[in-house]
Amino acid sequence: MDMIINGEHLAAIDGRTLDIDNPATGEVIGQVPRAGAADVDLAVKHAKAGLRVNSRVPAHRRYDYLVKTAQLILRERERLVELLVKENGKSRSWADFEVRKGAEVFQTIAERVKDPQGATYPMDSMYNAETQLSMLYKQPLGVIGAIVPFNFPVELMAYKVAGALAGGNSVVVKLPEDCPLTCLEIGDLLLEAGAPAESFHLVTGLGHEAGAAVVEHPGVGMISFTGSTEVGKQIAVEAGRQLKKISLELGGNDAVIVFDDVDVDEVAESIVRGRMTVGNGQACVADKVWLVHEAVAEKFAEAAGRVARSLSYGDPADPSVDVGPLITDEAANRVHDQIQQAVREGATIVAGGERFGPRGISPTVLSNVDRNSALLADEVFGPVVPIVAFAAEEEAVEIANSSRYGLQGAVWTKDVNRALRVADQLDVGGVVINGSSCFRPGNIPYMPRKESGLGKDNMFDAMDEMTVGKAVVFNGVRAMGTA
Length: 483
Ligand code: NAD
Prior knowledge:
Layout: E1 3-5, E2 8-10, E3 17-21, E4 28-33, H1 37-54, H2 59-75, H3 77-88, H4 92-113, E5 119-122, E6 133-140, E7 143-147, H5 153-166, E8 170-174, H6 181-193, E9 200-203, H7 207-216, E10 222-226, H8 229-242, E11 245-249, E12 255-258, H9 264-276, E13 289-293, H10 297-310, H11 329-344, E14 348-351, E15 355-356, E16 360-361, E17 364-367, H12 374-377, E18 384-390, H13 393-401, E19 405-406, E20 408-412, H14 416-425, E21 430-433, E22 449-450, H15 462-465, E23 467-474
Parallel strand pairs: 7-8, 7-10, 8-9, 10-11, 12-13, 12-20, 13-18, 17-18, 20-21
Antiparallel strand pairs: 1-2, 3-4, 5-6, 6-23, 14-17, 15-16, 19-22
Helix pairs in contact: 1-7, 2-4, 2-6, 3-4, 3-6, 4-5, 9-10
The structure holds nicotinamide-adenine-dinucleotide (NAD).
Nicotinamide-adenine-dinucleotide (NAD) binds next to helix 7 and helix 8.
């Protein structure tokens, strides 16, 4: 499939291509252009023209084409789900969830367009401004550079494209190199829905080539990036050099704290599924570190092992498969190495720990993990959980907060005061009480802390983030005295 630039399907200017394979089988299922700086430059040139177009499309028309896009995604749902399973390796049920979520994001952000925007302030609270009236309103920010990771390509592209277009901007999207196909199909649906062809451009290629070219291009006014903390930091440096606005949604390795008053089987069922099945353990907010009270740690490890062993794993072409492969050979090797390292450090494998297919890791539960293990320091991006026992509430909070990440967390207890007290102390942007932390509804603010980012990429904030305020002051329009 080709890129979509200015409504046209284009190959890379230098003709280079990238193979896209099925992570479950290694079979090549498509080819896309391997764009470079010249292709990005072309997309930005069109996007500048597209900014003039979309910024003059009235908000009610932007609403129409975004809602229509949501409807078309649902019309094409079956086909999109099948393609997403093939190129990404996630299970059919989670691919279906993601495609429906993508439609929901377009629909919900469209509805934000209909909210009245702006405010008016009488200025007589300020000395010497008594007769003034200020009018504040939002304008498009410019050409938005959007960079999308592999793990939720449809949902995450939706926040960025719908947010940018809703705000009257134009957008150049760098799609994930491993699974860009479903997003390209959605690009065609945006065209069919009537989104101005000049205003959105979908570029395929590698991060250090096409991605870096988007970040560095002086014509791009804001970078909206979702991906790893390491790449996010590089982007922040370049964006800082040019003083570009950035939104960074980055990695996480956040904790789930389980107290000794819970129903161990119920908790194990919920968080094993949250951790292992959503994107095959490749989710930013998945329950990645389990801190379990020492009184129930052993019982909990057995229960978690039972649930992990009950999950079916393999090629998600089979709709009964719960856990599919990781995205690349390197990703699978890295996670397998992380398991081996933990075992060398003294951890016990309660379930899993094996490879399957070319890139699979069977659902893995590790107990007796030391709190200083690398599994707690680094993000583990696969279906693996370390169980760390704690003795006291303060200790659990202290271990959780020692993470360099601050995305999300969870607390399980029947004691509501303790749940709220612990939630209050966790240094993260969101806490789920008595549920899996793998929860991102999108319609409440999503607020990463520490090395998890600086972003506000959700249905609630995306459009606001991609607009800039303007104050227009009227002089001599209020009949106020000056005394
Ligand atoms: P990644 O950082 O490797 O790549 C993300 C995107 O950035 C890809 O499109 C890639 O091509 C591009 N890229 C890579 N190097 C670049 C560079 N130098 N300049 C510009 N672009 C570049 O991440 P990934 O492996 O695709 O995704 C997994 C990571 O994303 C995990 O860390 C996960 O936690 C994180 N993530 C975070 C959220 C969130 O909302 N916080 C959501 C999903 C994923």
